[in-house]
Write a structure and sequence with these properties.
Elements lengths: L12 H23 L4 H28 L2 H7 L1 H6 L3 H15 L3 H10 L4 H5 L1 H14 L3 H13 L7 H21 L7 H11 L4 H14 L3 H8 L10 H15 L1
Length: about 260
């Protein structure tokens, strides 16, 4: 599921089969090249060709998420939405996640109201807290946002692998840093924390970068804040990021 926080999922052997095949091929290629260096170039070419489609797919997905085009993002999720369990709850929640991640406050709130409250709603507490904390922050409800961010950090880590645990922990801490930034109460290492979270989850890249830019300005580093704003999309009027960007640009230019 394309959400900002990793969720535990059922193990499906077919999902890991392509990766297992790629690893096996890499091992065989390595053995052939070790025995005879003449095999090195053609074997490397075969490996690149076999991995290229997956790398291109990841690159296209990342590019789409960084574009800020929330409608295209939601369109790309349609196949996932059609297959997700409890669609009456999860489909609106996924939409709310996308809208909140790009600053579309009203659309995200409307999507949340459409979600059916039931077992899936209760099970998605991590995702709900993340989305609601983002929305409260963008609406200036800093105390409510801080409360939700603290509640999120207090949740037990789901039973996922080491990388999943690392990702969840980072995003939880980064949400707290985001709330602090918009409250003008950032800590010394919050900018780097927000940058790391942005790099790990392209969906929340710009939310984290705007928070990092606010923190940088508050710390007197306008040059760093300007660098964080580079490459930002031209946000529509429906997104709160439009006003954030304009205000930050004005502040960094005046510094």
């Amino acid at each position: 599921m394309p959400t900002p926080t990793a969720q535990p999922s059922r193990f499906r052997p077919l999902n890991v089969l392509p990766l297992a095949v790629s690893v096996l091929c890499a091992v065989l290629i390595g053995q052939m090249a070790w025995k005879d260096p003449r095999y090195l170039v053609p074997c490397a070419a075969i490996l690149v060709v076999s991995l290229l489609p997956r790398l291109l797919a990841r690159w296209r997905t990342k590019r789409l998420l960084l574009s800020g085009d929330v409608e295209r993002v939601l369109g790309s999720w349609k196949g996932t939405v059609d297959r997700v369990a409890y669609p009456e709850t999860m489909a609106p929640l996924m939409a709310a996640t996308a809208y909140a991640s790009y600053g579309w406050i009203e659309a995200a709130r409307r999507a949340l109201t459409r979600a059916v409250k039931g077992p899936a709603w209760e099970a998605a507490v991590e995702q709900r807290l993340f989305v609601e904390a983002l929305l409260d922050t963008f609406e200036g409800e800093n105390a409510a946002a801080a409360e939700k961010a603290a509640a999120l950090e207090a949740l037990p880590i789901p039973p996922v692998g080491w990388l999943g645990r690392k990702r969840i922990t980072l995003l939880r801490h980064a949400l707290g840093a985001l709330v602090r930034a918009f409250s003008h109460a950032s800590r010394d290492k919050d900018v780097e924390l927000l940058r790391k979270a942005a790099g790990m989850s392209p969906l929340v890249h710009w939310a984290m970068f705007y928070a990092a830019a606010i923190a940088a300005v508050d710390q007197g580093d306008s040059k760093r804040a300007s660098g964080l704003l580079e490459g930002a999309p031209e946000w529509p009027k429906d997104s709160a990021f439009r006003s954030f960007h304009e205000e930050l640009t004005t502040r960094t230019a005046a510094a």
